[in-house]
Amino acid sequence: MQNKEINQEKSVNEKNLEVFNRYFPGCLSIENDNQLTLDVGRLKALLGDFSEIKEEGYGLDFVGKKIALNQAFKKNHKILKPLNESTSKHILIKGDNLDALKILKQSYSEKIKMIYIDPPYNTKNENFIYGDDFSQSNEEVLKQLDYSKEKLDYIKNLFGLKSHSGWLSFMYPRLLLARDLLKQDGVIFISIDDNEAAQLKLLCDEIFGERNFVACAVWHKKDNASFLGKDIIDLLEYVLIYKKSASFKGTRDCLIDTEKHRELITKSSKIGERIFKKDCCLIENGDFTGLLEKGLYGSKQFCMEILEDVEIICGIPKNDIKIKGRFCWTQSSLDNETLKGGRIEIKSIKGMKPIFYKNFDNNIPFRPMRNLLSKKIENDVATYNDAANEIKEIFDNLPLFEYSKPSKLIKKFIKNVTDINSNDIILDFFAGSGTTAHAVLESNKSDYQKLSEGGGVI
């Protein structure tokens, strides 16, 4: 990613004005005190007779909206300072995510395929603090926003009370910038609960457009819940899904056809040697690292022999695997299918029963994703309890993060909206425990996708 001098970058406002003047010349002019004036009559003439100036209508309004909008359009004067040079395609940014989003716009405008965020829920128990620097009292900002110093102080005090207005003012500029980062066929997933779900839906309708609403998925977050101190037992959260435009192809869940994989060995086939190409093979879902020693594996019915030692790193062989067994596929058939994008998976080294998976191309029928996300229905969904166990396993039984989302859930979203070998970029600007990064790396291992994660406060 290029680290340009931000001082030389044009603000969002300046870029929007350039676009406006390109398509609607003469509608904007600079009047007294260098203030822009819109010629409404000329604009209506250019748009045609159907145009009408909207005086009233349905929409979302909240205290501080004008200043939150200013936060998104305000010029940024910060740059990224790399800690070390790396060839990794993954990017981890530590800092204020509002600043990070503005910096990312320089290199990643309309390049992000998928955004997942798990923002603060604005609950009574949550240590959410509205931390944006909107408190400048200089004459220029106050004049631009038409705010008095007293009104600004009122807004600051209000934002410290866990109000809807404070939370919306925090989210508004970030989602505006996020929309600019999405590709035309991009999509955003936002986790939320009852505290701000209604407000977030209205906010996203305004930013992304109501016609670009995809779904409000319901996530079954707990297997069991406490019965103490509640009128209703809370088992659910939500994931709001919005697309950037009509170019989004939709979600693709599991395959409809049952021929998505085929066995490579049968009891009746003749014994022969085969070579599994290293780039087309995955061992134990990417969880195995070590030496696959030569020798006999499997059962009496399906005995396999590894002919040479092979080093495995995160499930990927460093060399081709030479193997002997009762294969029902010839070497040429196997090579032809893997060239088309198919892959070979060995789910268990001990069991050693390789399976061939067909290429997941666009000709294979998928079904859309369900809007009910429950592990009781699908095995690629998990709960908060699963996430807690996952964190403890990674960090040697230390409960470092509360309420982290399970990586399985994020992997499901990635699988449903990205294509294999598409070099899609994934962004999470509320990275927290790094679950999205974890899910991306796991997706890379299992699907051979080349995904990256940008971030904000990580």
Automatic annotation (TrEMBL):
<dbReference type="GO" id="GO:0003677">
    <property type="term" value="F:DNA binding"/>
</dbReference>
<dbReference type="InterPro" id="IPR002295">
    <property type="entry name" value="N4/N6-MTase_EcoPI_Mod-like"/>
</dbReference>
<keyword id="KW-0489">Methyltransferase</keyword>
<keyword id="KW-0808">Transferase</keyword>
<dbReference type="Pfam" id="PF01555">
    <property type="entry name" value="N6_N4_Mtase"/>
</dbReference>
<comment type="similarity">
    <text>Belongs to the N(4)/N(6)-methyltransferase family.</text>
</comment>
<dbReference type="InterPro" id="IPR002052">
    <property type="entry name" value="DNA_methylase_N6_adenine_CS"/>
</dbReference>
<dbReference type="GO" id="GO:0009007">
    <property type="term" value="F:site-specific DNA-methyltransferase (adenine-specific) activity"/>
</dbReference>
<dbReference type="GO" id="GO:0008170">
    <property type="term" value="F:N-methyltransferase activity"/>
</dbReference>
<dbReference type="InterPro" id="IPR029063">
    <property type="entry name" value="SAM-dependent_MTases_sf"/>
</dbReference>
<feature type="domain" description="DNA methylase N-4/N-6">
    <location>
        <begin position="112"/>
        <end position="445"/>
    </location>
</feature>
<dbReference type="InterPro" id="IPR002941">
    <property type="entry name" value="DNA_methylase_N4/N6"/>
</dbReference>
<protein>
    <recommendedName>
        <fullName>site-specific DNA-methyltransferase (adenine-specific)</fullName>
        <ecNumber>2.1.1.72</ecNumber>
    </recommendedName>
</protein>
<dbReference type="GO" id="GO:0032259">
    <property type="term" value="P:methylation"/>
</dbReference>
<keyword id="KW-0949">S-adenosyl-L-methionine</keyword>
